[in-house]
């Protein structure tokens, strides 16, 4: 059964900075999508900030099983209405993979309920990602660790809620460590944060990074039926057991609840 993936990219630095465009001439989103398309089980499309509805129309999200999110300099330009739309789909069961500087995206901060802040440095350091949970589906096909020769450093403290599962922890050449791969469940949806991906380094061309993203997409795909959170009013006559209404009420029969 095919897994439908939408790869969302901010697509700003690729257009403005030659060094980024040289590494990702078609945009980071297209490079990420190309890696995912190596798996015949995936049907992959891309969307960017500049498109109507940021490329995330209701119709596209309805048919998306897993959404990947990369953003950096334009988090504030993402419409709150689109964030609402994505959040609703995650709660219903759509998987969400948040990449690198997407830690500060509106959607990730909303779903985490925390600042999602961290320490950082741009010095082209080596990063060693240790596998904390070798039995996890996201870590399949990996050794004890893998390395990226040049990356931006992210360091602790990382302002996230305690992860449900810790998949990777990174060590950097300068000595810092970072919780670089973590998962959460929100509603019916699964979320994976994966740290690598600074735009001035060819991170998404790396075969191990591609493998992690393919594993993550399979893991994050919905399981079971969609959860529609509509908060319905259940009439007295439709209670599983026969009851008689007692006391006063705030709502008339069939009236929607307060939100």
Structure overview:
The protein has 259 residues and is of the alpha/beta class. It has a single domain, classed as Rossmann fold (3-Layer(aba) Sandwich), CATH 3.40.50.880. It has 7 helices and 9 strands. The protein has helices at 13-16, 18-23, 28-36, 58-62, 80-92, 106-112, 207-220, and strands at residues 3-9, 42-48, 66-70, 95-99, 119-131, 145-155, 165-172, 177-186, 189-194. A 9-stranded mixed sheet has the order 2-1-3-4-9-8-7-5-6. Helix 5 (80-92) packs across helix 6. The model has no long low-confidence stretch (mean pLDDT 96).
Number of strands: 9
- Beta-strand portion reads 25-35%
Span between termini: 37 Å
Residues in helix, %: 10-25%
Task: Report the mean per-residue pLDDT as an integer.
Answer: 96
The CATH homologous superfamily is called Class I glutamine amidotransferase (GATase) domain
- The oligomeric state of the chains shown is single chain
Series of H and E elements: EHHHEHEHEHEEEEEH
Topology overview:
Layout: E1 3-9, H1 13-16, H2 18-23, H3 28-36, E2 42-48, H4 58-62, E3 66-70, H5 80-92, E4 95-99, H6 106-112, E5 119-131, E6 145-155, E7 165-172, E8 177-186, E9 189-194, H7 207-220
Parallel strand pairs: 1-2, 1-3, 3-4, 4-9
Antiparallel strand pairs: 5-6, 5-7, 7-8, 8-9
Descriptive labels:
259 residues; alpha/beta; Rossmann fold; 7 helices; elongated
Can you summarize this structure?
This protein is α/β, with parallel strands linked by helices. The protein is built from seven helices and nine strands; from the N terminus they run βαααβαβαβαβββββα.
